[in-house]
Design brief:
By secondary structure, the protein is an alpha+beta fold. A hairpin with a 2-residue loop joins strand 9 and strand 10. Helix 6 packs across helix 7. It is globular. About 40% of the residues are buried. It binds a DNA duplex through loops.
Length: about 280
DNA sequence: AGCCATGTTTCACA
DNA sequence: TTGTGAAACATGGC
């Protein structure tokens, strides 16, 4: 589940390992993940020099000399720095690169490449130089969830009539929170996912603000979720034991020992402690 | 073995 | 504006 911590880490890894490299050729095995025809996509980025990478929410922006590669891993997937000889079985796109990777064995047919796989959904989009704002899916994104000040959060919540979970998952408000980390974020804040935003007190908003940063930071510090891997295939260190209440139905709440409940919240499930997160 | 439900996302369409 | 369903799939349970 690529959410904020994983996307942040992958972005840093791309910066550290791919800046200066040239995309020589591209294989697209899943045209539906593109925003333009396959031939246009490969023509646009072939020969491009990777210049920078940065994150907005769950999107990775790879800036090149020939425009932007915009990646969204959807419901999960991997970005692997590997080689032609070591390509994983499952991949949707492959970007073949110039030069040798220091982590790879040199060899004649061992051309380094960036393999991108989505488990389900996921996008690899292209935006031309200077036309990033025309890419609506990413242009609509709100600020990164970890970078919003308390005052900004308060003004975003003011007058909002929806429920808290819907707000937190709305990428046009805060970008980066998904339906995995949200369970612990709401638990840390002591708030029920279905709380109506216009009933939140100032203290509760402050708790929410702190919980967003804390919930994501814990995983960031440990290298991201255990079920995702980095560019070199290594799993994150944020383990099941590090999760407070998410995916722990029936187990005791770490604060009050009440059994954790799994509930339906619209189209998604939520895990809550019924006593620490009362609906009121 | 096969069918169904579920889910880490996002958008289009009521 | 907001809620529901659908769409590139894979796994586990019955």
């Amino acid at each position: 589940m690529p959410e904020f911590p994983e996307i942040y880490l992958r972005t840093q890894e791309i910066k550290a390992n791919l800046v200066g490299r040239v995309i020589r050729d591209i294989d697209v095995l899943q045209p539906k993940s593109l925003n333009i025809p396959v031939d246009d996509f490969t023509a646009a980025l072939s020969g491009a020099v990777i210049l920078d990478a940065y994150q907005r929410g769950k999107w990775i922006f790879v800036e090149t000399s020939q425009g932007y590669l915009l990646l969204n891993l959807g419901m999960g997937g991997e970005i692997l720095l590997t080689s032609r000889a070591a390509l994983p079985e499952k991949h949707r796109l492959v970007f073949y690169l110039d030069g040798q990777s220091d982590k790879l064995e040199p060899g004649a047919d061992d051309q380094p490449c960036l393999s991108v796989n989505f488990w389900w959904f996921g996008y690899a989009h292209y935006a031309a130089c200077g036309e990033l704002e025309k890419h609506e899916m990413s242009a609509k994104l709100g600020p990164n969830a970890t970078e919003v000040s308390l005052e900004e959060l308060k003004s975003m919540l003011a007058g909002n009539k929806s429920r808290l979970k819907n707000f937190l998952l709305d990428q046009t408000r805060l970008a980066g929170i998904g339906n995995a980390y949200i369970h612990d974020i709401l638990f840390l804040a002591g708030l029920h996912p279905l709380r109506k935003i216009d009933t939140l007190s100032q203290q509760e908003i402050e708790a929410l603000h702190a919980a967003i940063r804390k919930g994501l930071q814990i995983s960031l510090d440990k290298g991201g979720a255990f079920y995702e891997v980095n560019l070199f295939g290594e799993k994150g260190g944020f383990a099941m034991e590090d999760i407070l209440i998410g995916y722990r139905e029936g187990q005791p709440c770490p604060t009050c020992a009440a059994p954790i409940q799994k509930i339906k919240t619209g189209g998604t499930s939520s895990f809550i402690c019924p006593t620490c997160q009362p609906l009121v």
